[in-house]
Amino acid sequence: QTVTSGIVSALGRSGLRGLGYQNFIQTDASINPGNSGGALVNLRGELIGINSAIFSPSGGNVGIGFAIPASLASNVLEQLLAHGEVRRGRLGVQAQDLSADLARALGLEQQRGAVVTQVLPDSAAARAGIEAGDVITGLDGKTVRSAAELENIEGLLPLERSLRADLLRDGERLQKNFRLDAASALRLRGADLDSRLAGAELQELPLAMRQRGASGVQIGEVERGSRAAVNGLAPNDLIVAVNRVEVGNLAQLRRLVERAGGNQLLLTIYRGRRAYLVPMR
User: Fold this and answer.
1) End-to-end Cα separation, the chain, in angstroms
2) 106: helix, coil or strand?
3) Which pTM value belongs to this model?
4) pLDDT in tens, 189-219
5) pLDDT tens digit string along 38-57?
6) What is the set of domains in the chain, with CATH numbers?
């Protein structure tokens, strides 16, 4: 057993690669493999965080450690007990960082925010009236400095209440009220669309893929021996067309599959860098 001491260097840290939603407490207290996952306590012995990660070029402690805030860990626990899963929210936009060149092109003085490049159909953003070209500078009072920070903040906001987005549109400051969609709304079971897709999990593309210009619907897990597997679908396949009509997202996929009814269902997929036509039987 090990006890280390230090100070809290910063709150609300993000930007660590590969760690999902991020809202860390930064501390210089030594965090090593033996005490990662342990308690971060204050001088009164009260739990304030769960030690989770370190930044280290060499793999050893360099005085930069990160802990999940106790309030966030408590919220996750409550959701697991109540629902059996953690429910995240999604605004339903694709965004990119507001660079200096882009700020000048948009006639903006500030270089902070996330520029909306696309609003997903039937999303919380679409219902709120957020448009492509808007610059999101805040969500529910929290400052948005980049596209990555936007995704992080929206994933940590509650689903059950009205929230506010702070925007810049053509240099004018606007506010839009919205309620987040559950992230599960951006994922569905193939069986809920068509029996020929049974066993496949369908989901919207991750932010990183959308930012690279990709579109379509990604296949997540595929149950072994399921109808989707027998038809030739595999995890990470990318559905880009149904009956040779392009698909950009789940809403479009749903409409095209429903339009086909029980008739021919021909998917165009990308697997790696190759395209395939897959008839669904």
Assistant:
1) 59
2) coil
3) 0.57
4) 888 889 899 989 898 887 667 767 788 999 9
5) 888 999 999 989 888 877 76
6) 8-83 (2.40.10.10), 89-179 (2.30.42.10), 185-279 (2.30.42.10)
